[in-house]
């Protein structure tokens, strides 16, 4: 079988490990052939294809990013877009299956194409860990570790100057990164999109920690909406999907904390640092297992399905189960963490 693979959407630590696991298992299992679509769906609609030999995946599981590139292209747009033209492209190149590695948008497109008889299977990917149908996605553990390391460093400089330190992390709709890294770093307040809080409450937690002689640490997800506001903070215009470009809520929170408490405060936006660099060992293992398991889906022609993690087991689920709604932080998890605030 000749299998085409693409990585689409935001980059993520562990993408290369998926490709490596799939290719190595495929070569050992039956001398299958692999090609890559360059820059995600763009490579599909523009027929930009490269061969992926065994030598190309040698040692790549430890590399961040993706060796075949990524983009946010819509496979239904452009001269080569749409199921009919994609099917013709696959036939011209003798490609029997497409493996789409991506987040909610990528998998939604894959699911739609599968419904229109394109032979496609999926691998869930997002550092935000907000995809339904899987307990964890690779990239999340790395993002949390990067954020935690940064917060540990912020704590030391904050303590030296008796300042409140605010760390802004990624998380448009779900606060998993903020929750996990905040708990790990011992944050005195964690602000996430799922919980609308007033700044008076946040300031109270900060003041409590400060009065005990601590340098308060506040973690805020980029999608946090303060009480009294209707949408997430944005002053950077719109992205290619027409969504507000987030980033900057940390600076606003910092100003409010200093205004209310009088405590000198500083903000740090971690931004794309959370996406880059070497994946953790956990993410390398999970991504490798996903890559090996998705090959089985392709060989068995289980179109419209994807691999997922259930407990510690890799399972098969319909792509439709992963799209349409996001996996957000439940109230019980936030209440658990809130016991540590202040």
Automatic annotation (TrEMBL):
<comment type="function">
    <text>Catalyzes the phosphorylation of D-fructose 6-phosphate to fructose 1,6-bisphosphate by ATP, the first committing step of glycolysis.</text>
</comment>
<feature type="binding site">
    <location>
        <begin position="103"/>
        <end position="106"/>
    </location>
    <ligand>
        <name>ATP</name>
    </ligand>
</feature>
<protein>
    <recommendedName>
        <fullName>ATP-dependent 6-phosphofructokinase</fullName>
        <ecNumber>2.7.1.11</ecNumber>
    </recommendedName>
</protein>
<dbReference type="GO" id="GO:0003872">
    <property type="term" value="F:6-phosphofructokinase activity"/>
</dbReference>
<keyword id="KW-0963">Cytoplasm</keyword>
<feature type="domain" description="Phosphofructokinase">
    <location>
        <begin position="2"/>
        <end position="297"/>
    </location>
</feature>
<comment type="similarity">
    <text>Belongs to the phosphofructokinase type A (PFKA) family. Mixed-substrate PFK group III subfamily.</text>
</comment>
<keyword id="KW-0324">Glycolysis</keyword>
<keyword id="KW-0479">Metal-binding</keyword>
<dbReference type="GO" id="GO:0006002">
    <property type="term" value="P:fructose 6-phosphate metabolic process"/>
</dbReference>
<feature type="binding site">
    <location>
        <begin position="72"/>
        <end position="73"/>
    </location>
    <ligand>
        <name>ATP</name>
    </ligand>
</feature>
<dbReference type="GO" id="GO:0048029">
    <property type="term" value="F:monosaccharide binding"/>
</dbReference>
<feature type="binding site">
    <location>
        <position position="163"/>
    </location>
    <ligand>
        <name>substrate</name>
    </ligand>
</feature>
<dbReference type="Pfam" id="PF00365">
    <property type="entry name" value="PFK"/>
</dbReference>
<feature type="site" description="Important for substrate specificity; cannot use PPi as phosphoryl donor">
    <location>
        <position position="105"/>
    </location>
</feature>
<feature type="binding site">
    <location>
        <position position="266"/>
    </location>
    <ligand>
        <name>substrate</name>
    </ligand>
</feature>
<feature type="binding site">
    <location>
        <position position="104"/>
    </location>
    <ligand>
        <name>Mg(2+)</name>
    </ligand>
</feature>
<dbReference type="GO" id="GO:0005524">
    <property type="term" value="F:ATP binding"/>
</dbReference>
<keyword id="KW-0808">Transferase</keyword>
<feature type="binding site" description="in other chain">
    <location>
        <begin position="126"/>
        <end position="128"/>
    </location>
    <ligand>
        <name>substrate</name>
    </ligand>
</feature>
<dbReference type="GO" id="GO:0016208">
    <property type="term" value="F:AMP binding"/>
</dbReference>
<dbReference type="InterPro" id="IPR035966">
    <property type="entry name" value="PKF_sf"/>
</dbReference>
<comment type="pathway">
    <text>Carbohydrate degradation; glycolysis; D-glyceraldehyde 3-phosphate and glycerone phosphate from D-glucose: step 3/4.</text>
</comment>
<dbReference type="InterPro" id="IPR022953">
    <property type="entry name" value="ATP_PFK"/>
</dbReference>
<dbReference type="InterPro" id="IPR015912">
    <property type="entry name" value="Phosphofructokinase_CS"/>
</dbReference>
<dbReference type="GO" id="GO:0046872">
    <property type="term" value="F:metal ion binding"/>
</dbReference>
<keyword id="KW-0460">Magnesium</keyword>
<feature type="active site" description="Proton acceptor">
    <location>
        <position position="128"/>
    </location>
</feature>
<dbReference type="GO" id="GO:0042802">
    <property type="term" value="F:identical protein binding"/>
</dbReference>
<comment type="subunit">
    <text>Homodimer or homotetramer.</text>
</comment>
<feature type="binding site" description="in other chain">
    <location>
        <begin position="272"/>
        <end position="275"/>
    </location>
    <ligand>
        <name>substrate</name>
    </ligand>
</feature>
<keyword id="KW-0418">Kinase</keyword>
<keyword id="KW-0547">Nucleotide-binding</keyword>
<feature type="binding site" description="in other chain">
    <location>
        <begin position="170"/>
        <end position="172"/>
    </location>
    <ligand>
        <name>substrate</name>
    </ligand>
</feature>
<dbReference type="InterPro" id="IPR012829">
    <property type="entry name" value="Phosphofructokinase_III"/>
</dbReference>
<keyword id="KW-0067">ATP-binding</keyword>
<dbReference type="GO" id="GO:0030388">
    <property type="term" value="P:fructose 1,6-bisphosphate metabolic process"/>
</dbReference>
<dbReference type="GO" id="GO:0005945">
    <property type="term" value="C:6-phosphofructokinase complex"/>
</dbReference>
<dbReference type="GO" id="GO:0047334">
    <property type="term" value="F:diphosphate-fructose-6-phosphate 1-phosphotransferase activity"/>
</dbReference>
<dbReference type="GO" id="GO:0061621">
    <property type="term" value="P:canonical glycolysis"/>
</dbReference>
<feature type="binding site">
    <location>
        <position position="10"/>
    </location>
    <ligand>
        <name>ATP</name>
    </ligand>
</feature>
<dbReference type="GO" id="GO:0070095">
    <property type="term" value="F:fructose-6-phosphate binding"/>
</dbReference>
